[in-house]
Design the sequence.
C-alpha cells in the first residue's frame, strides 16, 4: 500500500490514502503507546481493512488505544475493551457488555 503512495504528492492523495498515511506514521514512531482517535472516520471498507491489518501487526510491539464509535472494527482488533459512559470507565469482560451497559441494542453485535 505505502509504495503506491510514495509516487504521489500529498495534495493528490485521497482522504482515505491520507488517513492511512497518517495512521502508518503514528504507528511507526518509537513510542511504546499510541492513541488513535476515530481512525475509521471517513474510510472506505477497503481502507478500514488495511488499517485493521496495520493495527494488528503493530499491536505486537506497542500498546494501541483506540477511541471510535465504529465498534465492530474496534472489536475486531482489540484485546481488551473499555466503555466510557456518563463519566465512568467500565472495563468489559466481552463485547456483550456493550449491550448490558446500554451502549448497543440487543442484536447489534
Sequence:
Amino acid at each position: 500500500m505505502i509504495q503506491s503512495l510514495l509516487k504521489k504528492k500529498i495534495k493528490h492523495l485521497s482522504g482515505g490514502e491520507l488517513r492511512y498515511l497518517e495512521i502508518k506514521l503514528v504507528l511507526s514512531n518509537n513510542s511504546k503507546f499510541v492513541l488513535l482517535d476515530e481512525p475509521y472516520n471517513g474510510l472506505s471498507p477497503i481502507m478500514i481493512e488495511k488499517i485493521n491489518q496495520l493495527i494488528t501487526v503493530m499491536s505486537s510491539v506497542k500498546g494501541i488505544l483506540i477511541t471510535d464509535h465504529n465498534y465492530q472494527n474496534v472489536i475486531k482488533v482489540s484485546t481488551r475493551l473499555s466503555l466510557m459512559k456518563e463519566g465512568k470507565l467500565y472495563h468489559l469482560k466481552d463485547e456483550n457488555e456493550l449491550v448490558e451497559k446500554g451502549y448497543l441494542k440487543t442484536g447489534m453485535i
